[in-house]
Fold this protein.
Amino acid sequence: MSELDKVVDALRAAPSVAVLAHVFPEADAIGATLGASLALREVGKVTAAYNADPLPPELCSLPGATEVVREVPIARPYACYLVLDTSNLERTGGLLSGRPAGAVVLNVDHHAGNSRFGDVNWVESEASSAGEMVYRILRRGGFPISKAVATNLYAAILTDTGSFQYGNTTPEALRAAADLVESGAAVEEIAAWLYGNRDPREWYLLGEVLATLRVSADGRLAWIEVTSAAQARAGLGLEVTEDFINYVRAVRGVQIAVAFKEVSATQVKVSFRSRGDLDVARLAGQFGGGGHRNAAGCTLQASLTDARARVLAAASTYLQPDL
Ligand SMILES: [Mn+2]
């Protein structure tokens, strides 16, 4: 029996299911969580959606978003815990501590490094998103997909494929998305919630940050800086700067994009993006960080000037053709 079928069987058998995902949730984590919990509720199960962290504003309009609970789900003993998009138990933010004995933990994830912490582990690194995996669970199990469910799952697939731009935009992901649109996914509203929902101060900060863009002499390395002073002028923190680095990666010919984010006078967060086979997780690893091949990060205990010098030197070396 496939792992997918084991997940479907366990969900069919369970009268109650708690659905949860990783801390610092984005649209895949929350869309998959809400899609699953709403679909299972619609077939009569007791369900609830959990996350250890508050939702970012762009996710608060997803159907069911106001129901996401932040406490540890021990008040009610669930028969089943469905954990989505979460590569290890620590990433649940402690939500599974105190789960009742005998409860089944289903681990459904698309991260290659998943620690296989569940009683059933359906880990498929080729899947575009946890949202696509939930879609496949619902279709395989014959669970109906309502407009609210379709909207959540479409939002999950849309964001984890970078709006159908990344290499994980597979035929399966597109077929799932097409089927979800047919099931009523609110395509235009989702785009407006996710991508048309910016505080103007974020764009003031972006403007200031883009003015720091520098490109190496050979054009393959480019970087930006988010200083503490710029954050203070905008009245915003680093949490709104997550996608600024995409503007750096979009520069013609750039193979490694870097964003330096000043946390304090002695601490700098560094984000990396790359194209193709260039593995920036290894580059981040040189500074104690990690991530995926094309998206990674690390934190240096250093001034912005020192961090920039060290990281750019390492990135330049990494780009040498003989390494
Ligand atoms: Mn995901």
